[in-house]
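The data are set out underneath:

___
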Amino acid sequence: MAAHPPSPRPNSLKQAFFDAISPGEQLLQLFDAFPGVAFFAKDRAFRLVAANRVFWERLGCRSESDLIGRDDFSLFPARLAETFRRDDEEVLATRQPKLKIIELFFNRQGLPDWFLTNKYPVFAADGTPVGIIGTVQSHADRGLAMACDPKLDGAVSWLRAHFREPVSIAALAKIAGLSVRSFNRRFHAVFGVSPQTFLIKTRIQAACEALRHSATPIGEIALDLGFYDQSSFTGHFRRHLGVTPLRYRQESQRMG
């Protein structure tokens, strides 16, 4: 009886498949099939070289070509761009992915959206890092907390809608159906910070929007966002961003 030819090794099959295709555009089409999932790719100079429709539409662009060659500093406020750049540099330097990065932005309705970002290094055939690919997905699109811990979803949704109001951690824990201790522990495991710190970060991000896009006095912004007074607001703002609210407003206006 004739012997069967030896089966190809799995790695050989995989390599042969990818060698036979030009996967770039086809991968972008694949990511377009997942609602709410934004995909991007950057080169070693941290310039965008590819993005799917969800990514470029979220940034208000008309097509992918509007993004090609641009970096984060031409797309986002400087403080956000600096954070993104540090993450990118870490991914390339360590050659390790950076996963489940929780990031906060405000949508066009003025509500905070929490985004889950994953970044992976990309290597050439000789093992040299050539860039970064990543995905971004928002809580509003999929339920970020639900994907990580179902019990947190209701509390996160409430916090998203009411962050300007007085917030009791005990009340958030009750919404989640947890004790305060369990709620604090599980919240920190998902978001990397305590509920109170996350609330402050949310208010600080809202303050950045108000400082950039309005002439509202700083004291009024502080009270509107739930801070005790302007002094307390300034202390939290400097602690998180390294500058005072006034300096931040001046820098933002100077940058246009």
